[in-house]
Amino acid sequence: MKSIPASPRDNKVKGLSDGLWQVLVLSLLALTLLCFSTESHSAQITFAQNGLTVNVAPGKTVAVPITVSLEDTSLPNTYASFGLAHVGGTLDRNWINSQIYMSLNSWYKTRQAVLQVKVPADAQGGSYKGILKTVWLRSNESVAPAEFEINVDVDSFVSCSQVPLFSDIISSQEFINMRNNKPVQIELSGSVAAPNGCEISTAQYQLTDEYGELDRVEVLHLGDDGSFTVTIPMVASRKGNDKDGRLYTVKFEAINEAGVGDSVETNIVVMHDNGKK
């Protein structure tokens, strides 16, 4: 049979069909390369101060600032919206206010957030650990998962059960031998200790005059170690019929959560024969 030569129209159709196949193959190859490239590269989320440890006293709240950054992006207009969610650890999730949601993109790659860590008043000493993980809501680029870790050390709590304790009360003199009605300054010193778990709120001294003329109460200023020195004004006078001398009495007091602690009384006496040679 004699073959019939192909018409110009048939040649055009065949050429178009071959071209479509070439475009389709190249498209599939480009898509495969794009998918492979996307899977092999992921943007990264980083947390400044990740793994930090905070110290919190029972019943207190501390603010913990963190910085979140989006790094190693490869596509333009990268966008990621996410939040932090508790996923494990021994930390009570109610201790941390982690309702943090933010968006990072190609223009705003770094943002700051604040975690509120609140420890219950009845919490015991120890270490508590919680893990907060990013939850991705939307992104046009593959983003590697990231975890944020925080450790909370609860300060050991010891209840106050003992009042302040005074010791080493020393007076510059116990007897006053001076001319009548002459003012005199008596210096007293000592120390007061706050038992473990206690904090001294106030301290004072009380001067009692046998005659009721110089009775007074004054605030006592304590050093960091509980030591103190105070100068108390008195008068070198007595009544003529007071055979055993005029008696001044000084007593120190300090208050903490357990109550009032006081010192033994310190006596200063204006002698009967004061002023005589």
Structural account:
By secondary structure, this protein is mostly beta strands. The protein is about 10% helix and about 50% strand. The chain is built from one helix and 18 strands. The chain has one helix at about 10-40; strands at about 45-50, 50-55, 60-70, 80-90, 95, 100-105, 110-120, 125-140, 145-155, 165-170, 175, 180-195, 200-210, 215-220, 225-235, 245-255, 260, 265-270. The strands form four sheets. Strands 11, 13, 14, 16, 17 and 18 form a six-stranded mixed β-sheet that branches. A five-stranded mixed β-sheet has the order 2-9-8-4-6, with no helix packed on it. Strand 16 and strand 17 form a beta hairpin. The radius of gyration is 42 Å and the shape is rod-shaped. The model is unreliable at about 10-15 and about 30-40 (pLDDT under 50).
Q: What percentage of amino acids are in beta strands?
A: over 45%
**Runs with pLDDT <50, length 5+?**
11-16, 29-40
Portion of residues within helices = 10-25%
Report the order of strands and helices.
Answer: HEEEEEEEEEEEEEEEEEE
Characterize the main sheet.
Answer: 6 strands, mixed
Assigned CATH class of the largest domain: Mainly Beta
Could you say which overall geometry the principal axes of the C-alpha atoms support?
rod-shaped
Secondary-structure content class: mainly beta
At CATH level 3, the topology of the largest domain is: Immunoglobulin-like
Rounded to an integer in angstroms, the radius of gyration calculated over CA atoms is 42 Å
CATH level 4 superfamily of the largest domain: Immunoglobulins
Number of domains: 2
Number of helices: 1
**Alpha-carbon distance between the termini?**
165 Å
